[in-house]
Design a protein that fits this description.
It is a single chain. This protein is an alpha+beta fold. The strands form four sheets. Strands 6, 7, 8, 9, 10, 11, 14 and 18 form an eight-stranded mixed beta sheet that branches. Strands 1, 2, 5, 15, 16 and 17 form a six-stranded mixed beta sheet that branches. Strand 10 and strand 11 form a beta hairpin. Helix 2 packs across helix 5. The longest helix is centred in the middle third of the chain and has 23 residues. The chain starts with a strand and ends with a strand.
Length: about 300
């Protein structure tokens, strides 16, 4: 069973661990809501559900001759190593501690850097281009290939409409998406379209008490790392994410039958390395062996070519 980072923080009495997780998930509903499953080994090979089998009606004493096959494709998610060292010079730590806790400040900044890198690669990760990374949503949904999970605003992009957003929501099967992930520009456009239609986006509270906007009851997650410069041609993304005026909105359902994070045993780890040999400093290492899996194709979809 998967556990969110939000719940993992509640299960620990280590105040530093709690603080690092809160820093990582703060202002990021994607990381707050996505479950993480610990796996044994360095990779998980799983069968991704492509389509459901058909069912049939039968008469009494009828021969049951057909046996439709469930369609799967085998996928492998390999754990990647994400982390950084937080080094605190002993001179600064001892002479400036009357102003602020320097060590805590540096660890917090390091945790923020890890959060931004993780959030970025959950979308743009490309294991084939950069082997040290895992594949993100763009690769898992395959936005460069036409499919039922890819909704194109236009052949090369078009101005966003609420009908396009509704099509994205409908592309995620088995219930509404748990989250709509987008850039700030896309969120502003949706808010403007809602006002023009005589409505405002719903507002509620997130897991940390922050205000979150909702569309059709689905929370909207803003990511400053989603670009508004994707290149779209022939109603698919070209794999070039700079040079044009398009953005992408993602609809995802979380869980072990949908989008799920993977970690090695221990999840996020904070390792006190201690005093360094080559310089007068104390080191703390923050690391996570992680990956991303999509267990069913229909649990995630992308609306590409979104323009203002």
């Amino acid at each position: 069973m998967g556990t969110t980072l939000t719940e993992a923080a509640k299960l620990s009495n280590d105040t530093m661990y709690q603080g690092v997780i809160e820093t990582i998930i703060k202002d990021c509903p994607l990381l707050q809501l996505m479950p993480w499953v610990e796996i044994v080994g360095n990779a998980l090979t799983y069968n991704r559900e492509l389509a459901l089998p058909s069912a049939e009606w039968h008469a009494v004493n009828d021969d049951w001759t057909t046996s439709p096959a469930v369609t799967f494709t085998q996928k492998t998610a390999t754990l990647a190593i994400l982390g950084q060292n937080a080094d605190v010079d002993n001179y600064i730590r001892q002479t400036r501690s009357n102003i602020m806790d320097v060590e805590s400040a540096i660890i917090e900044l390091t945790a923020k850097a890890i959060r931004y890198e993780l959030e970025d690669k959950l979308v743009y990760g490309d294991n084939s281009g950069t082997p040290n990374q895992f594949d993100g949503l763009i690769k898992l949904i395959a936005t460069g290939t036409a499919s039922d999970q890819l909704v194109a605003a236009g052949a090369t992009g078009a101005t966003l409409t609420l009908a396009m957003l509704d099509s994205l929501i409908d592309a995620v099967k088995g219930g509404k998406p748990d989250l709509l992930l987008m850039s700030r520009r896309s969120r502003r456009k949706i808010a403007a379209l809602a006002r023009a239609a005589g409505n405002n986006l719903e507002v509620g509270k997130g897991l940390l008490g922050e205000f979150v906007q909702f569309y059709n009851g689905i929370p909207i997650s803003i990511s400053d790392l989603i670009k508004d410069t994707h290149v779209v041609s022939g109603s698919v993304e070209t794999g070039v994410f700079t040079g044009s005026t398009n953005s992408t909105i993602y609809g995802v359902s979380f869980g072990e039958d949908g989008v799920c994070g993977l970690t090695g045993p221990g999840g996020l780890q904070i390792v006190p390395i201690g005093d360094m040999e080559t310089k007068d400093a104390k080191r703390t290492r923050i690391k996570m062996y992680c990956s991303l899996a999509l267990f069913s194709n229909v649990k995630a979809a992308a609306l590409i070519g979104v323009q203002d």
